[in-house]
Amino acid sequence: MSKRCYLLTIFLFVTWILHASFATAQVSGRSVKMGAMLPLTGGMASWGKNQQIALEIAREEINASGGIGRVPLEIVTYDSQGDPKEAINVVKKLTQIEKVFIILGPTTTSECEVVFPLANQLKIVIVSPTSAAPGISGKNRPWPFRNSRTSDKKMDPAIKKWIDYYKIKTAVIIYDAKDALAKSEATLVYPPILIKYGIKILDNLTYVTGDIDFSAQITKINHLSPDGILIGGNPVEAANIVREARRQGMKQAFIGGGSTCTADLIRLGGKDVEGFFSGTHVWIERPDARMQKFVKNFMDKGKTILAGQKPDSGAVCIYDSVYITKEIIEKAKVTNRPDDLEKDREKIRDGWTNLTDFPGITGLTTMDKFGDGAGDNYVLMVKNGEFVTVK
Amino acid sequence: MLLQQLTNGLMLGSGYSLVAIGFNLVFGVLGLLNFAHGGVFMIGAYVGVVLIVIFKFNIYLAILGSMVVCSVLGLVVELLAFRPIKKEHHLAPLIATIGLTIIIQEAAIKVFGPETIGFPKTVEIQNFNLGPVRISSVQILIFSTSILLMMGLHFFIKLTKVGKAIRATAEDSQTASLLGVSINQITVLTFIISSALAGAGGVLIGLNYNSVHPFIGMNMVLKGFVIILLGGLGNVTGAMFCGLILGMIEVLSVAYLSSSYRDAFAFLTMLLILVIRPSGLFGLRIHER
Amino acid sequence: MILYIQSILTLIGINILLALSFYLPFSAGMLSLAQAGFMGIGAYTSSVLTTKVGLPFLPALIAGGITSGIMGIIVGFPALRIKGIYLLLMTLGFGETVRIFFLNFEYTGGAYGLGGIKQETNICNLYIFIFLLVIFFLKITRSQIGRTFEAIREDEGAAEGMGINLTRNKIFAFAMGASIAGIGGGFYAHYAQFIDSGSFGIPQALEIMIFSIFGGIETFWGSIFGASILTILPEWLRPLKEWRLFFYGFILLLMMILRPRGIIDKHLVGSLAYKWKSNKQVRN
């Protein structure tokens, strides 16, 4: 190389080093604090426990590779019990006393409804990894977000493929009348899609969260003899609905909303749920190295005396949310100085608002103008005890 | 379809009855609404799962094992939430059992995890068609076991000397003790029987509905409330029939009305009965405690 | 920090109202697990009035209380003949019916709940109301009405024999309790800014009863104390993380064994009042 080339290379190299260290050294302080509000006790505790494990994995990984901007990550977790009253206290405590940059959570839609207006009052970003009922982020701009996908985005392609695969002409919808998400899926999302594809809806039936006996509903559906059945609700009840149907001799095809598309469905449904369709952005069997590493770590950490647990959508999305926030903090040059708290939080808000094609373990994630997630979705089917994509 | 729905209701109700009887027994004899009954039921289901999965028991042994473990648990409930509290305080034992239920639930979450687990498939499920009605072998097992246990309890109370002592205590504990009945022993026995039944119920219901999680007891206790009111407080036979009736009311209201109102239906029925016939459908005596 | 403490104080205030709403009928011998249902009626009524009709907060709040009170009168009549545990279960049934009604009532949001409620509750209006309520309870306790309630609670038959009008007194206690719960509901709705039927169910009904009984069943101060302590307790126990609820249950159990009539009893209130009075005399 000529002498000038050589000098140029050295000059560029030195500039690059200075820039890199200057950029990351901007994060000061002893730790970067993120907050999390999870239902660690109460009826939603399984969601809370899974998210807690996911947060722990994210934190360990990030700190093992140097932290955020070379400062260790600290995640302050508070139990909100899935109760809106507790949620209010937790948000205020995390924002004002723990002074976190961002709050990940809450899990339930009721809590979101109560806490999202607070996010705007307190000027802090709150990102729910699970809530998917339509409109909640949209009416509370600009501080709250939801790193999930609303049902309309996921279910249109899923229902279309399901209809083609099973040659469906008539359908029955059964949903959880107590759950806001299930109700919106079954009454607002499914019917227009079905009508669009020319499917006749024979009837709408309901059950309630926590039901264990579905014999009445299944007998009724059996009588109607639809080609296919759509479920809006939890994976636990969905699995038992399918089991009861098979028990009563019904061979119809089933499809469920994104919340049914978890390992719980397969674990509880067993052979009965083979062929079950769903649309989701969280595909745990996705052949992606990071996703599989996460699943393996998760199963190791979550063991109880009865079984190892696979992660649910909340765990996966909260894991991604931690990494998204990490990148925002580094890119936007958040300083972590106490005086800059307000400005730093604004930087995080802008980072989330403009999030485009972030490569998470779910695939690519973008925030749309309503503060809801958009990006990769998968149409999945249960085959041999696993979710696989449908061609 | 009506026949099938009635059968569905009967099957559902037999599970309810099994759990409600123990609940009603404790109330009739001791005047205590034992909230922890739900917790014992839930532990019974988990014990069943553990015995089958880890110790490789078959279903009948699992039921037996669960009954044994739950009897012990019932003893603990009596020792902690009932015995230390003097009789004149009506509400303190209720709240104590609520506290104990919370402890039992949290313990279950710690040991087994908060997620819902399925019941291991031990019984080969065969389906039988009796005319227009379809029943599974599991449902027959539950129904027959429930009826057997309930008949057993019924005859025990009616025919044996101990049974007579229990009835005497329920009628009037002061007079009973004057006549030589050891109230302490009867109390302990009542708790043991009630908890054993709850344990059996837990295994059977867990087996049939394939959903075991730390909160399954809560719903059962509520059904228990409705059943003991319907059946007449303290009336064990009444509780048995009313469990079946409640199962049928629930199934029919879901089948022919709307499931969102199902729980409301059960409560409205209860309210109506209370207003029209405060002693319950089968109650012959009015207990005032 | 300030907002957090304000939050806790607001929650304490609302829970005090609810605990007192349980205590009033209880002091006349009526065990009601319907207070969560009445709270819901008050919450929904006042919220609909402020969000859809445009009424200002205070009138809407009172209207919510009155609506609950009227429901209390309606439920109170069949409840007259029913005693003890029966009443407990009947009121539980009523509360559940209310919850399921709101779960399905589309006008107030149904399963989606009712949101967009303005933040109106603050320490000021809440605690002024509590102050007025305390005076109300003090007056009742020391007056004829208080003695009447006690007589009814001890022995209804004897009370009736002495000429006490059971119907009027019991309905009064029950309906007043219902309206206080309704007002508590109105305050809650305008604090959380969103309500759904899940906030007014059996766990809440039990929680309200526990406030009162844990705190002390002999005087109304017990309910105030119980509500305050049991609201703060989960916050204190936060460092215990997942063991929080476990300890909560443990404390309940322990307290019922050690002090079955609740923590505050007449003795304690009496001796505190005596100390206060004698200090006053010494200072004079």
Report on the structure:
Chain A is of the alpha/beta class and 391 residues long. Chain A has a 7-stranded mixed sheet with strand order 7-6-8-9-10-14-15, with helices on both faces. In chain A, a hairpin with a 2-residue loop joins strand 14 and strand 15. In chain A, helix 2 packs parallel to helix 11 and helix 8 runs parallel beside helix 9. The longest helix of chain A is centred in the N-terminal third of the chain and has 23 residues. Chain B is mostly helical. Chain B has a single domain, classed as Orthogonal Bundle (ABC transporter involved in vitamin B12 uptake, BtuC). Chain B is 73% helix and 3% strand. A two-stranded antiparallel sheet of chain B has the order 1-2. In chain B, helix 2 packs parallel to helix 4. The longest helix of chain B is centred in the N-terminal third of the chain and has 29 residues. The radius of gyration of chain B is 19 Å and the shape is globular. With 284 residues, chain C is mostly helical. Chain C has a domain of 198 residues. Chain C has 12 helices and no strands. In chain C, helix 1 runs antiparallel to helix 8, helix 2 runs antiparallel to helix 3 and helix 3 runs antiparallel to helix 8. Chain C starts with a helix and ends with a helix. Chains in contact: A-B, A-C, B-C.
Number of helices of chain C: 12
- Helix and strand sequence of chain A: HEHEHEHEEHEHEHEHEHEHHHEEEEE
What proportion of the residues of chain C form beta strands (DSSP E)?
under 5%
- The secondary structure category of chain A is alpha/beta
Assign the CATH class of the largest domain in chain A. Answer: Alpha Beta
E-strand count of chain A? 15
Terminus-to-terminus distance of chain A: 53 Å
| SSE class of chain C | mainly alpha
Coarse morphology of chain A: globular
Overall pLDDT metric of chain C:
89
Distance between the termini of chain C: 40 Å
Specify the CATH architecture of the largest domain in chain A: 3-Layer(aba) Sandwich
Overall strand count of chain C: 0
Instruction: Tell me the helix content of chain C.
Output: over 70%
Radius of gyration of chain C, in angstroms, nearest whole number: 19 Å
